[in-house]
User: What shape does this take?
Amino acid sequence: MSNPKSKIENRKSPVILITGASQGIGAAIAKTFAREVKGCRLALVARTAKKLATVQRACERLGASAISFACDVSDDKAVAKLKREVTKEFGPVDVLVNNAGAFTGGPLLEFSVAEFDRLIAVNLRSVFLMSRAFLPAMVKAKRGDVFNMSSIAGLVAYPGGAGYSAAKFGVAGLSKVMRAELKDKGVRVCTVYPGATMSPSWGGVGVPAERMMPAEDVAQAFYDVYRMSRRTVVEEIVLRPQLGDL
Assistant: This one.
């Protein structure tokens, strides 16, 4: 955790927790909310504290209050500690963005058990753990928003996606259960399925940036859903590059 001075006094401003916030789509989501929701309080979560600090400073320049929390959100003990720290600094979370994830590909018959387990943990188990930790306060308040990051790979199977696609299909299923259980409790649940997005995970693959979506466009979709009337929920968002999937 860093910079405890970044707390703000106005407790009516929303608390927005974003996992995987140190780069790519997560960082873009943090900056978008910082710019659009003046005075919002951001809990920025990722495993790498150094990268988080850069995003934190950018969000503070945009008018938000932000604190960085280094945490492996696939670890139940680490998530329990994170919950205590975030609650101490900010109180209950109003918006939970389950964005943390990882990708590796490979043929099913050559894919290791260890790597399969890792992808399930990072992409799917993390959503379960974070939701279990922070949803009870939303249910108590009868208000909240949860965004779960799936992928086009959670809609369409493809060769070489045994671990990643299985995890992202799992996120989609878990999100549907959450939506069914929480719709009468004032908590909105949205599953996001982005296609190829310009981010560090695509580094070195040789695909032109112009062929992919900007991370800022994906982030804007999160904010646009959040700002709708509480009478409306967007259950799913599918975002693809204009020219289609890669």
User: Anything to note?
Assistant: The first helix runs from residue 24 to 36. The beta strands are 15-19, 41-46, 65-70, 95-98, 144-149, 187-194, 236-239. The domain at 4-239 is CATH 3.40.50.720 (Rossmann fold).
